[in-house]
Design a protein that fits this description.
single chain; alpha+beta; seven-stranded antiparallel sheet; three-stranded antiparallel sheet; 10 helices; about 40% helix
Length: about 300
């Protein structure tokens, strides 16, 4: 997360005061004040400068591998296993069969979820990571798809907008396409994936596509990008917005029902604000109290 990369910052408060939080490896002198600004989206103040960590980059020591899993849950279980065993590849991605067929377009057996892995760093670390993950992959009886799917993703990972525009089945048919990223613990992330897909298919008559992928995994859980498309029946902004929020509401309701977070790293923005009280629960009032306290102090 950003808190693992951010060392120090400068921020400007509403009254023009400049706040600086210094750069040290670790501190234990009160609450971590960086977190007043990280993820606050300007509620407290505006970040104007950051000091970030730098890491040695050793691309010459690289291991890549793609695996096929029988369904999304098998893929999630595999990711959980090697993350909790202590392996930390630089890239850990899991794409559901819908994205494999419609977005990545890798030739895989039907209903196959695609796992993309890259390990980089010192040679001995890369070797140990590769060997450990390959052993776990054998336990899960995953399909070894070699390196070509990873190489394909490397070349095309930023082409998604062109993919949608160039396909007449999307924009020329009046499709509205977007993503919504969330996060949850390993114990419920599969339930969220299945529940969202089931409700979308049942409740959204205009639905054209609903898929998803994981791109950031941790010891305790992972994120999911839901990728969806629906065909606009009425091209008025009001009608499209209503249909869009119908889709979004299903995702938000199911994520909150299972105790996940409604935003992994994109932030709430304006369009997820209505779910913030449920997201934060009893801690939601602290944000208002904090803002009021700062205003009373003259900031």
């Amino acid at each position: 997360g950003i808190e693992d990369l951010l060392l120090a910052l400068e921020a400007v408060m509403p009254d023009g005061s400049i706040i600086r939080i210094k750069n040290v490896p670790r501190r234990s002198v009160g609450p971590d004040l960086r977190h007043l600004f990280i993820g606050s989206e300007g509620m407290i103040g505006y970040i104007t400068e950051v000091t970030m960590k730098l890491f040695k980059y050793r691309p010459e020591n690289r291991w890549m591998k793609a695996y096929g899993a029988k369904g999304m849950q098998t893929g999630l279980d595999f990711l959980q296993k090697f993350m909790q065993e202590g392996y930390r590849p630089a890239v850990v991605r899991l794409h559901d069969p819908v994205e494999v067929e419609n977005v990545i377009k890798i030739d895989c057996p039907k209903d196959t979820a695609l796992i993309l892995l890259i390990a980089e760093g010192p040679e001995k670390v890369v070797k140990a990571t590769a060997e450990g993950i390959e052993e776990i992959a054998a336990e899960f009886q995953l399909m070894d798809l070699g390196t070509k799917p990873v190489e394909h993703w490397f070349r095309t990972r930023n082409d998604v907008c062109h993919t949608y525009i160039d396909q007449p089945t999307y924009y020329n048919m009046g499709a509205v396409v977007d993503t919504c990223e969330i996060s949850a613990n390993w114990s419920v992330i599969g339930d969220i994936y299945r529940a969202v897909r089931a409700r979308m298919i049942k409740e959204v008559d205009s639905l054209y596509l609903i898929g998803g992928h994981s791109s950031h995994s941790y010891v305790t859980g992972t994120n999911l990008y839901f990728e969806f498309a629906f065909l606009a029946k009425d091209y008025s902004p009001e009608a499209i917005e209503a249909e869009y929020f119908k889709v979004l509401t299903i995702i938000m309701e199911e994520v909150l029902r299972f105790g996940g977070s409604i935003a992994h790293h994109h932030g709430s923005g304006k369009y997820r604000t209505r779910w913030m009280p449920e997201e934060h629960g009893s801690s939601y009032q602290l944000m208002y109290k904090l803002k009021e306290a700062l205003e009373n102090l003259g900031f």
